Amino acid sequence: MSTAVSTIDPTARRVPPLGGFNLTMLGIEIKRMLRNRRTIVFALIFPTAMFFVFGSGSGGNEPLGGGLKGNVSAYVMVSMALYGGALIAASGGAMVATERALGWSRQLRLTPLNPVAYIVVKALVALTMAGLAVVVVNVVGALKGTPSMPTDTWIYCALLTLLCTMTFAALGVFIGYLVPGENVMQFLGPGLALLSLLGGLFIPLTQYTDSIRMIAYWTPMYGVAEVSRAPLTHELPWYAVVNAVGWLAIFVLGAAWRMSKDTQRV
Amino acid sequence: MSQPLTAVSLSGVTKDFGRVRAVRGVDLELQQGEVVAFLGPNGAGKTTTIDMILGLSKPTSGEVRVLGIEPRAAIARGLVAAVMQTGGLLKDLTVRETVEYTRSLFVDTKPTDEVLATAGITEIADRKVAKCSGGEQQRLRFAMALLSDPALLLLDEPTTGMDVEGRRAFWQSIRQDAKKGRTVLFATHYLEEADQYADRIVLVSHGTIVADGTGSQIKSLASGRVVRVTWENADTEAITRLGGVDDVEVRGDQVYIHAKDSDTVAKYLLTQTSARDLEITAKGLEDAFLSLTGTTDSTDSTHSTEGAQS
Question: What is the extent of the structural domain holding A160?
Fold first, then answer.
């Protein structure tokens, strides 16, 4: 080479495998969520406290009746795990919009990271954190010893709960775009609490008047709550399934719609 | 060995936003190791063009190539990096985490500690980004941009907020890397900076390249002088008939004559007319810039487009 300036051969550079997906990135993302004190208080400590209040008193030992193998405490525990998991999954989803607003997404677009790998990482973070929330409530329940149900029922309930939290990860992404700013949780926190109340997570729907119950059937937390508790209650109305699937579709489409609207800004 | 690849090549590139044409047919080739200033007023299409080189947006027509390949393919190989003026950082990460995160996305990188040391941010490695000053954040952005040893570096107003000393040190290191083959394209609206530090200035206005050359070439493009005289009832037509007169402006009894051959104009004015109080001034780069970009009669349509983009 005779020129003063040396030159660069582009073919000597490699493209990372898996679209740039890697465990370092996943680890840092999970660490970020664990460091967020508000998320931890609302998604881990609060549901556990609620379980203690509603599910482990003297009433908790009462069997569910109707020949079911389980007690009230188990029913409350599953509900609380869903509440905690939904909240943390939503806050994880909301981070996507925050990161776009901060210009971090644009920064990532200047690296080999594939947008699909980014979404996969975010989904895995939401799933991991929701899993943590579900596990915390279940472990506390097991240690307390009040909830009673067969082991396989316990496992099925926990797995279904985890699956159902993904609805709220999508909701988080959607709301994150609708409510700009870094404190989406100020909307999601009270909002999810209200939905949980309506959906029968805090108080059984049978306690409500008929008119409120009719409204409750249409709200997003009702369907997933029924699905999560189905292994325990052995009942799953068809409209609960429609509710769960419908709201998942609405939130996923809403999130996708806002994300695609936002591409001009990258 | 074959001829080195062109670092950046744009051919017939246009970009429309709705009905507004932000970039109107740009042809540009940057060679490896060149330091090029992308100079132009706000709304000239600089950001839009840079976004297309980065593969963040696709041209409406025309073709963009970085080292002979698609911009996105070049990015995937870690060949391109960019430093923006603001944003692009997560506030809740530490400086070290930010570097590690970015590093994990590339195949070939230097060790984190080395990257931190080179950028001079080892001391603040465990500090949250939110607690870093603007200057520290900027150094972090550079650390992130350089960790993949990019062949092409795009900078947006790189030295805004830097003191004179910082600015000099910055450009010294940029020039050193250019010797190793790194191409640097920086957007600026500081004429001095473009003139002092770039090998080449590409002047853009209203979505097209209006001039391309070294600082002195650009200056000579808009060469000539301005002759100012006090002249009641000025006969502007007679002046225009003189050779080498580019423009005549009348402001009250003050007449400004832009001319390549100011001597002829002055001789004519003082001997053939009642004009008096004559003054001749040379045009600087500032004037060259203004006359080439036509900022005085800027249209606002392109202006608002870029504002929405950035």
Answer: 19-261
- Let me know whether B150 and B262 are in one domain: no
Domain of B69 in residue numbering reads as 8-215
Token pair for A34? 């664990």
Instruction: State yes or no: pLDDT of B298 exceeds 70.
Output: no
In a domain, A118, yes or no: yes
Give the pLDDT band (50/70/90) at residue B2.
low
Structure tokens of B183? 């191409």
Cα–Cα dist A244/A223, whole Å: 4
Among the partner-chain residues B74, B102, B105, the one whose CB lies closest to the CB of A10 is: B74
Of A192, A195, A216, A219, which Cα lies nearest the Cα of A206? Answer: A216
Task: Pick from B35, B66, B90 the residue to mutate for testing the A interface (most A CBs within 10 Å).
Answer: B90
Asked if residue A216 belongs to a domain, the reply is yes
**Residue at B250 is within a domain:** yes
Question: How far apart are the CA of A100 and the nearest CA of chain B, in angstroms?
Answer: 9
Nearest chain A Cα to B176, which residue?
Answer: A5
From A71's Cα to the closest Cα of chain B, the distance in A is 43
Q: In terms of CA atoms, which chain B residue is nearest residue A98?
A: B90
- Over residues B135-180, the pLDDT tens digits come to 889 889 989 999 988 999 999 888 777 777 878 888 888 888 888 8
Q: What string of H, E and C letters represents the secondary structure of B158-197?
A: CCCCCCHHHHHHHHHHHHHHHHCCCEEEEEECCHHHHHHH
pLDDT (0 to 100) of residue A181: 66
- Reported as a single tens digit per residue, the pLDDT across B72-91 is 999 999 999 999 878 899 99
Per-residue model confidence as pLDDT tens digits over A167-212? 999 999 888 888 866 677 788 888 999 999 999 888 888 888 899 9
Q: What is the spatial order of strands in the sheet that B61-66 belongs to? A: B20-30, B8-17, B61-66
Q: How far is B193 from chain A (nearest CA, A)?
A: 23
Q: Is A262 on the interface with B (CB under 8 A)?
A: no
